[in-house]
Structures are given as C-alpha cells and as structure tokens.
Design a protein that fits this description.
- The longest helix has 17 residues.
- The protein has 5 helices and 11 strands.
- It is of the alpha/beta class.
- The chain is globular.
- A hairpin with a 6-residue loop joins strand 2 and strand 3.
Length: 196
C-alpha cells in the first residue's frame, strides 16, 4: 500500500515511529477519556463547517482517532456524512453517504464502507486520518496516497486532520504534491493553520 519509493527520504522511518508513538499513547489513555474523545464538535470547527453540506469522515481502525464519533453531531447540525470506499490499490477512493448504525461492507486494508446507494458524492470537507502532523499543517499519512489524491480531486474541500495530541511532531517533511491541512482536531484542542 505504500508509495515509499516516491516519498521524501525518511518518511517510512517517521511512519514507523509515529505508529509506535500513537499505539503507546492510546494504550496508556484513561478508558473514560478514550470513550469521551472526539464526541463533541468544537464551536470554531462547527462554524467553519457552516457552508459545508457534505462532510467525509472515516471509520477509525485500531488506535486511529475515531472520526466516526463525530457523525451524530454533524448530522444534528444538518450535514450529510460520507465515508470513503477504497476502489483500488493505487490510491483511488470515493465517498459514499452514510448514517450511523447503517450496515458497512468490508473493504481492503481493514477498512469498511457503506453500501453504494446513490453513488459517490463530493465532500465539502474531508476529515482525514493521519500518523503525524505539525503546526505548519503538514500531514504524515499511511503512505498509500489515498488522501493526497482525494485532496487533489476535491481542492475546494476543507481539509481537517483528526489525531491524538501525541501525534504532533516538530516538523513533517512535505513532498511537492502534499496539500497542507486547514486544521487539526485532537482530543484536547483545535489547531488552525495560518491560512485557514
């Protein structure tokens, strides 16, 4: 799944370290704090999403920040929630409408996605998983390029990273094709980029 041959040197090592750091943080997290994390939609984020009709989330896998927990609040404020469906192993995915408790189908890499229903929809905001981020809004992803391609295909969509606070790094190397995030939501704060 990785495009490590096209990465900036050092990204594969950064990914391995970021996975270990995230795993250790989540393992040491108080169970109640874990259950409450990402269930609220901070007011500044809700305000930024006012004009968005569709918001893409993801189903957190293993120790990823659980984006699906934001679904109920997003629906409550009138948003259509989308989930990604991986199409192939070369980095293509589409976004399908989803409602919490609707059946999900298994996808590649341990992912799950909704029934195709009315087909793919364009997201106005994309909440993306990540392994690491920095205050310059650079995102370290898994290496498959799925979100890089989604950001490029939907350039006007608000790009939001979702992460545990321990995933912040001093600096993430950016490749020329990397689009910075507009903001990052952690369990303790909403970090906005300078140009958001």
């Amino acid at each position: 799944m990785s495009d490590e041959h096209s990465d900036t040197p050092g990204k594969p090592t950064l990914r391995a370290l970021a996975r270990q750091r995230r795993r250790a943080f989540v393992a040491g997290l108080d169970p109640l704090a874990h259950r409450l994390a990402f269930k609220a939609l901070p007011s500044p984020l809700a305000k930024r999403l006012e004009d968005a009709r569709t918001v893409a989330l993801y189903m957190g896998i293993e120790d990823e920040a659980p984006a699906q927990r934001l679904a109920a609040k997003l629906i409550e404020i009138g948003k259509v929630v989308l989930l990604p469906r991986v199409i192939d192993r070369i980095g293509s995915m589409e976004f399908l409408s989803w409602h919490p408790h609707a059946q999900l189908l298994p996808g590649p890499f341990g992912t799950s996605h909704p029934e195709p229903g009315d087909g793919p929809m364009a997201p106005d905001a994309i909440i993306a998983p990540l392994l690491g981020f920095d205050r310059a809004m650079n995102r370290l992803g898994q290496g498959g390029g799925y979100y890089d391609r989604a950001f490029a295909r939907h350039p006007d969509a608000l790009r939001i990273g979702l992460a545990w606070s321990a995933q912040e790094q001093e600096a993430i190397p950016a490749d020329p094709w990397d689009l910075p995030l507009h903001m990052v939501l952690t369990e303790v704060e909403l970090i906005e980029g300078n140009e958001s």
